[in-house]
Write a structure and sequence with these properties.
This protein is mainly alpha-helical and 472 residues long. Helices cover 74% and strands 1% of the residues. It has a two-stranded antiparallel ribbon. A hairpin with a 2-residue loop joins β1 and β2. α1 packs across α8 and α8 packs antiparallel against α9. The chain is globular, with a radius of gyration of 22 Å. The two termini are 21 Å apart. The N terminus is likely disordered.
Length: 472
């Protein structure tokens, strides 16, 4: 599945003010998938220690239960495009909403560890679908003049979803007396945390009935009249819609999907541009960013922070994540992708190095000394801020821009797959690495952040201001 890449041929193709509000509603409704993406990815943070205690599992097995959702993510992302091309974008969203709901209910009421893992895989499949469908649908229904700003709704929704999940977890933990296994509504607090996702999942499903199908999909299945009516809804009436529909059809006929073989170089190795995309994806994950969202409460508790306070710090980290994302959205088209990536890498190196130093201190009565404790807390927020204002947004922007037109879809799929695998590797390894040496673990993340600087300087080309046709 690909999104429309047709450039506007005149300044007339913009939404009339009367239509723009409707378009914003459509984009926001579709971005609810991103909200669920962020919420589901982060909500497990509040349940980690309770799951460890209830099922009496070690760090290695616990990590697999936490990380197993990423397997579902990879499958969902890989299959969403084909599903959406067959049955439509809206039906695909509705399937994701149903799977999100089933996953939330199942995760809240598990019989054993194995079925909790199964429900997380199902939720992961929905995350993978939402991560592909949301941005593609928004691009396909947005007037060209507003496509970039409306497209940013997805990333904004993800970071808001992360923040809301942390806030809800904190509120529920307080209601349960600060105990993740405390009783709440007849269940343990951690079960309620996972079950609350039913609310946004149902809302996502309901909103999908209030928004139109993608005109591009309708044209692909021969429903030109319906596509025309929807184009009038989102682009106003001052457009030659016959020409617009012909333009979309022409672009669709021009598009040919590259095979996996075409990504290979001289022998069995990928073309250099594909390796650069893989490198961006791997560096984005190997700095350890998802540790901050999957394990932050556990991390703070391991160095003596009170459970309720640890949840609050997780929430403040999420707010910093939102602030950084807004900064990136403001500056990515002003100062360029490469400068922002390098600024972010330098900031991450500082934050991660300070965390490594702070965690190297010996615990006193189960807690970090006051100085190291404050340094660790501030450095964690610095790390998340610099990641969010750079690599968190830039990698997805560049992966959508840097590949030649013919290779874009296939190469983006390979890079995204590499990102999920790297995400899994970090998520699955952190508990065991932390048991081995928490400070040493952060040294590893610091090294990857430092290596990302020469990688960007030597291999990554600036894509700011270039037409997609110039890439290659």
């Amino acid at each position: 599945m690909t999104s429309t890449a047709e450039a506007p041929k005149s300044g007339a193709r913009t939404a009339h003010p009367d239509h723009l509000g409707h378009v914003i509603f459509i984009a926001a409704a579709a971005a609810m998938g991103g909200f669920l993406f962020g919420y589901d990815s982060s909500v497990i943070n509040g349940a980690v220690e309770a799951i460890r205690d209830r099922y009496d599992v070690g760090s290695a097995l616990l990590a697999q239960v936490i990380a197993i959702a990423l397997i579902g993510c990879a499958i969902g992302a890989a299959t969403a495009g084909r599903i959406a091309d067959r049955i439509g974008r809206i039906r695909c969203m509705q399937i994701a909403a149903v799977l999100f709901t089933i996953s939330a209910v199942g995760s809240a009421l598990p019989f054993a560890l194995w079925d909790l893992a199964m429900w997380r895989v199902i939720g992961g499949f929905a995350i993978g679908m939402a991560s592909v469908i949301g941005p593609a649908y928004i691009a396909e229904v947005s007037p060209p003049a507003y496509r970039g700003r409306l497209g940013s709704f997805q990333q904004a929704a993800i970071v808001v979803g992360i923040a809301v999940s942390q806030l809800v977890n904190w509120g529920l933990l307080n209601a349960a007396g600060g105990d993740q296994r405390g009783k709440l509504m007849g269940l343990e607090a951690w079960q309620v945390m996972l079950g609350v996702m039913v609310v946004p999942a149902v809302l996502y499903g309901l909103l999908s009935f209030a928004i139109p199908e993608s005109p591009r999909f309708l044209i692909s299945v021969g429903k030109r009249d319906k596509a025309r009516r929807i184009l009038e809804e989102v682009e106003g009436r001052n457009v030659d819609f016959d020409a617009r529909i012909n333009e979309i059809e022409t672009a669709m006929h021009r598009e040919e999907k590259a095979s996996f073989k075409e990504l290979l170089g001289g022998s069995f190795f990928f073309k250099p541009i594909v390796w650069i995309g893989i490198g961006l994806s791997v560096f984005q994950q190997f700095v350890g960013i998802n540790v901050a969202f999957y394990y932050s409460s556990t991390l703070w508790q391991s160095v003596g922070v009170d459970p309720t306070d640890s949840f609050f710090y997780s929430f403040t980290t999420s707010i910093i994540n939102i602030i950084g994302t807004v900064i990136a959205m403001i500056f990515v088209d002003r100062i360029g992708r490469k400068p922002l990536a390098i600024i972010g890498s330098v900031g991450m190196v500082v934050g991660l190095a300070l965390e490594a130093w702070a965690f190297s201190a010996h615990l006193v009565d189960g807690k970090l000394p006051a100085t190291q404790g404050w340094v660790a807390l501030i450095a964690a927020h610095v790390f998340v801020l610099f990641f969010a204002l750079s690599w968190g947004v830039i990698v997805w922007v560049m992966l959508g821009e840097m590949f030649p037109n013919r290779l874009r879809a296939a190469a983006l799929g390979v890079a995204a797959c590499a990102q999920w695998i790297a995400n899994w590797a970090i998520t699955a390894s952190f508990p065991s690495l932390a048991d081995w040496n928490l400070s040493g673990t952060y040294v590893i993340y610091t090294v990857f952040a430092a290596l990302s600087i020469p990688f960007v300087l030597k291999f990554v080309k600036e894509t700011k201001g270039k037409a997609l046709e110039e890439m290659g």
